[in-house]
Amino acid sequence: QVQLVESGGGLVQPGGSLRLSCAASGSIWRISNMSWYRQAPGKQRELVAIITSGGTTTYTDSVKGRFTITRDNAKSAVFLQMNSLKPEDTAVYYCKADISTPLRPGATFPYWGQGTQVTVSS
């Protein structure tokens, strides 16, 4: 069984910073893409940033230059450094990892974290 556990959310003032962490554990063969999504109240879940196993990153336009996604392959972890936060960044943030397991090493499935609340408010 594979689990993703997130941490690092909270309340921050506009212009502040937060760092989200997400660690995968369990029966893991390989992790390919790792990513962060967010969902604001009344809105659809949207992709924030994605990082490939080789370290290539892609960001949604609204966070470019403010957010940085990184990963630690040895720890099966992904991070999201969020700077210059704005009220519109308020949302529940979810990490996602595309993982194959030893039982089916040729098949990759998406796994999600439980979500962590980020609130940007004065």
Question: What would you say about this model in short?
Answer:
This protein has 122 residues and is mainly beta. The chain has strands spanning 2-7, 10-12, 18-26, 30-39, 46-51, 57-59, 67-72, 77-82, 91-101, 104-112, 116-120.
Provide keyphrases for this structure.
122 residues; four-stranded antiparallel β-sheet; seven-stranded mixed β-sheet; 0% helix; elongated; mainly beta
Tertiary shape: elongated
The whole-number mean of residue pLDDT values reads 97
Q: In whole angstroms, how far apart are the ends?
A: 41 Å
Order of helices and strands: EEEEEEEEEEE
Separate helix tally = 0
Beta strands, count: 11
- Class computed from helices, strands and strand pairing: mainly beta
Strand content: over 45%
Largest sheet report: 7 strands, mixed
- Rg, rounded, reads 14 Å
- Fraction of helical residues: under 10%
Low-confidence blocks of residues: none
Question: What do these coordinates show?
Answer:
With 122 residues, this protein is mostly beta strands. The mean pLDDT is 97. It has strands at residues 2-7, 10-12, 18-26, 30-39, 46-51, 57-59, 67-72, 77-82, 91-101, 104-112, 116-120. Helix content is 0%, strand content 61%.
Topology, element by element:
Layout: E1 2-7, E2 10-12, E3 18-26, E4 30-39, E5 46-51, E6 57-59, E7 67-72, E8 77-82, E9 91-101, E10 104-112, E11 116-120
Parallel strand pairs: 2-11
Antiparallel strand pairs: 1-3, 3-8, 4-5, 4-9, 5-6, 7-8, 9-10, 9-11
